[in-house]
């Protein structure tokens, strides 16, 4: 009888130990995410709800949109006058929880549209220079008539650190080119067309190069790199492995995603067979007063707007 009681006590102790380890592990992981967001979290002046949303949303139960802003700066290229740099890459991602799909819409940096903060039409890249994150989000929401729930802004340094920390990415490079590196050294990066493994410097060059064609193809290359990063990070299949990534990208990143938001999104997508659907705003080249602009196709913009809103309204 005592022997059975002893076994029961051992079993209880074992169960308690396992539960304690899980709780401590979960607490540690959450603390890492909390430490990351304590340095990167930047709430928007509007608050946590887009004006184009009727109710508050949550990544736990709703499909969401995230504006990815690549800022044209690094430690060697910071603006010395305290002003904002232009956005060098702009992609709106919508996450569909039902079919674990991520839709990426690329907006060329020279796209001409109405910028509310300046009350005039200009290149979308200038929205960040005029009004920072707030000005960029307002402009994109007005242009596409969709809510931007969250944003992630990064610069060259965080981009390089992220890719190198995850061990590089595999990309089918669509074109042979030569480009400067992150230190602006001309001709430092040369890539041949074809499938290959890229370092952070090589991937950055692929997203930046534009003189070989135009912003439309540049946007496609940016989507390829973002997709490759997403697949590599999500293939880690462990939230705990995110710690190194957070440590590296944190100093050069800002977002209004909380630690809880990030954990929810990561746990929803990690280990899943994610489908990436890529689109780009169609534009026509035009010079106005001697300045080049990409003039958006209005019907294409309306179509993309309908598709995004449809995804975001699904339950």
From TrEMBL:
Coiled coil: none annotated. One of its GO terms (biological process) is cell wall organization. It comes from Peribacillus muralis. Residues 86-234 form the Cell envelope-related transcriptional attenuator domain. It comes from the Bacteria. This is LytR family transcriptional regulator. Belongs to the LytR/CpsA/Psr (LCP) family. It holds the Pfam family LytR_cpsA_psr.
